[in-house]
């Protein structure tokens, strides 16, 4: 071609390579969305996930305020457990360390490994619900027919927005066999 | 819409035994070919439009829906009106000669600005309703709802009452491909369950929704609640039913082969009746326990 | 990947090769455009027959023809085939045929890549369709592929993922080609703002494709590794999050919606000025509007997820951003209206389809605005109201746009006028049946009928019957479309002039009809 469009600034080969690079970068961006999503959820409480590793929180007790903490338990996909909270709910002072107990029993006659997945409503409360110790931080192995108590220690941050009067903590018990099978 | 499920108008394609003394073809043809609005509006319960429902928030939702609907209608009348006028007047066959303009800054500014104003006016009441929808504090009753493939589980918190709710037997018998049962003969076909969720009228009922397997969604139109049930997640919703009655809904998120067969029935009863219900549940539980 | 440029290649032969090799190895933009269009039409009929299976089953309450499992396979496959197999390739085909001619370039910038990007498609859809015969059947978890449900797919699962990958690769290659062509192959004097609207909308669409198709590829890859390689992106038990898939999917999915409609905007912006005999009103503001729609499409995704359980602030943000889209979309509709105003209109088939587009797409826009209102969306979500909405923007929107384009440029492709009388019959049949099919769905949704159910309560019987009759009518009408195309392709009709229409704008009308195998090997001079 003799007559070139004077607007053309980048050669075709270079341009193509750049666009391909952009496509590859966007594929990477898709994966980048995974950690971005976690950070976003942590910052905003989007998704209602509390901390997944032990938090270190200093007690700062607000004696003037009581918040109700409720417990909900679910067992996923017919996993062979009986799983319940020792008490349905408790009244707590923000800033004070509490302990809650759950009971789980392996109903099968084989060793089973469970992973408890927490979720909190209202979602706005998730980032104020600080767990210093939790059975959900690690997988829990149960020998055949074993029953045992599981504990969670938590502090409801005293910065919990004043319009929140009840925090509901849910644990879903998942059988990790499916994950193990994939590995 | 036709008055009842058993209206003969439904049956023109159905076996003869159901078709006695009727004029189904004519009516059906009217409905299909011209139809639609004229014949149907007269009988409309909530068959044509969104339901107003039985809670304050469902009524608010309905109002918002109607408001935005009327706004759309108004815009449609103006825009389509101008277009139709233009289509009629500015035709080559009528000898119209084309103008040559291709810009008009004033017009362009106006038709960018007006929609912005309308949208802001719409956004305010919507946001207000949304804030109320989210406020589930101080409930009188909390029910944990768990979605299963393909049924619901209800647990009344602190009441020691829990049960599964599955598709009613009559519907289940009729739903098969070769069931041989005319589905029009089944009351509330696919919208009935063996055990409804019973709640007291006037009470603020808080729902905690989760799932056992895949994503489901708990939807009852008259309560204006639709919330996804996600495994590992807890979701919150609430309602306060002002009228007692039976309200039906369905799973609203594709959840596998029987997604269409896990209806929801909420029975709103007077508070004393609710207490009686809880007591009878306890009695039943004790009876089963002692039998074992 | 090799980056063969056009200047490196010399077409010494000036006619097409003979036989099957012509089509297998062609690097000619017109040949490839034809291949895309034929492929798209084939997929349109395959996806359409699946729609008819769905509508036949839903004609009456009770199950008559299929089992629920198969019904779900049909809804899933119908969507995947129509979106990735019919609508998107049709627009790529139109781009292939028309963009080089519209900008005065000799061919696409990357002719060999062009050949590959087409031939990947039949492979991708061959794989996808083969899943129908696999153990466990075709994918049945919806085209949105939400986990954990999609992980319950049988043997078809890895094939679903692989075919989505191939579709993605094909679209990305096609998009790169279109961008490079538009940027580098323009004739001297064809500045960016002088480009026709169809070229502009495609430029924006192509960038959207490059931005989001890889994200979809990433999302399905995560599904695949979750299922087979022990990752836990979306498995709660391993610390993953099923809702995150929905976020990633709709980050792709919403721009995807505009990928399917922007080129139709372009087509209509070409056709209306021709038949109104008046220049397009507000060319530059059309460009800005299309660009803002593209930009906004990246920040509205979660309006597909208002019921998933988001914090209030999230819901408010997505509601407001979604409502904003109405502004640039409104600008486009008003500009088309102003283009017709004081024109001298005639109503040949392409214009009829464009007008139907204008009216019916706007109705789809209205229901879209209603869906943006988050509290009301709670009632609309996952009901037939949504089905009505997106079919209004996709069928009388995108598909009518494609049909308008086909009638508009068919004489340029074939050298003969299509049968105007049959074209008009096809139009009226399509326009009536499309409304009979989809309008009652608004009522069904408002009355409480959920999507994706194989059977329904008897109170929904009437409108479903109507919709099914409409669907069958619409399907049959499309046979006429095929007949009209074949007739014209065989050269059976009145010889078309180079201009075809009454003084249309655009370089494509300066070359003879049918367009020679090679056009603009010497760049044309662009008049001011």
Topology of this structure?
The complex is a heterotrimer of chains A (183), B (292) and C (528).
Chain A: H1 12-44, E1 67-75, E2 81-85, E3 89-92, E4 97-106, E5 112-121, E6 129-134, E7 140-142, E8 147-156, E9 166-175, H2 177-182
Parallel strand pairs in A: 1-9
Antiparallel strand pairs in A: 1-3, 2-4, 4-8, 5-7, 5-9, 6-8
Chain B: H1 24-41, H2 56-89, H3 105-134, E1 141-148, E2 151-156, E3 161-165, H4 169-174, E4 197-200, E5 205-211, E6 216-220, E7 225-229, E8 235-239, E9 245-251, E10 264-269, H5 271-291
Parallel strand pairs in B: 1-5, 4-10
Antiparallel strand pairs in B: 1-2, 2-3, 5-8, 6-7, 6-9, 9-10
Helix pairs in contact in B: 2-3
Chain C: H1 19-25, H2 29-58, H3 68-103, H4 111-130, H5 156-184, H6 197-228, H7 242-276, H8 283-296, H9 312-324, H10 326-340, H11 349-372, H12 374-380, H13 384-414, H14 420-447, H15 461-489
Helix pairs in contact in C: 2-3, 2-4, 2-15, 3-5, 3-7, 3-13, 4-5, 5-6, 6-7, 6-8, 7-10, 7-11, 7-13, 8-10, 10-11, 11-13, 11-14, 13-14, 14-15
What would you note in describing this structure?
The complex is a heterotrimer of chains A (183), B (292) and C (528). Chain A is an alpha+beta fold and 183 residues long. Chain A folds into 2 domains: 1-44; 47-182, Sandwich (Ctag/Cox11 (Pfam 04442)), CATH 2.60.370.10. Chain A is built from 2 helices and 9 strands, in the order H-E-E-E-E-E-E-E-E-E-H. In chain A, the strands form 2 sheets. In chain A, strands 3-1-9-5-7 form a 5-stranded mixed beta sheet. In chain A, strands 2-4-8-6 form a 4-stranded antiparallel beta sheet, with no helix packed on it. Chain A is flat and about 75 Å long. Chain B is of the alpha+beta class and 292 residues long. Chain B has helices at residues 24-41, 56-89, 105-134, 169-174, 271-291; strands at residues 141-148, 151-156, 161-165, 197-200, 205-211, 216-220, 225-229, 235-239, 245-251, 264-269. In chain B, strand 6 (216-220) and strand 7 (225-229) form a beta hairpin. In chain B, helix 2 (56-89) packs antiparallel against helix 3 (105-134). The radius of gyration of chain B is 25 Å and the shape is elongated. Chain B starts with 23 loop residues before the first helix and ends with a helix. The model of chain B is unreliable at 1-46 (pLDDT under 50). By secondary structure, chain C is mainly alpha-helical. Chain C contains 15 helices and no strands. Chain C has helices at residues 19-25, 29-58, 68-103, 111-130, 156-184, 197-228, 242-276, 283-296, 312-324, 326-340, 349-372, 374-380, 384-414, 420-447, 461-489. In chain C, helix 2 packs antiparallel against helix 3 and helix 7 (242-276) packs antiparallel against helix 11 (349-372). In chain C, 68% of the residues are buried. Chains in contact: A-B, A-C, B-C. Chains B and C meet through helix 1, helix 2, helix 3, strand 7 and strand 9 of B and helix 3, helix 7, helix 9, helix 10 and helix 11 of C.
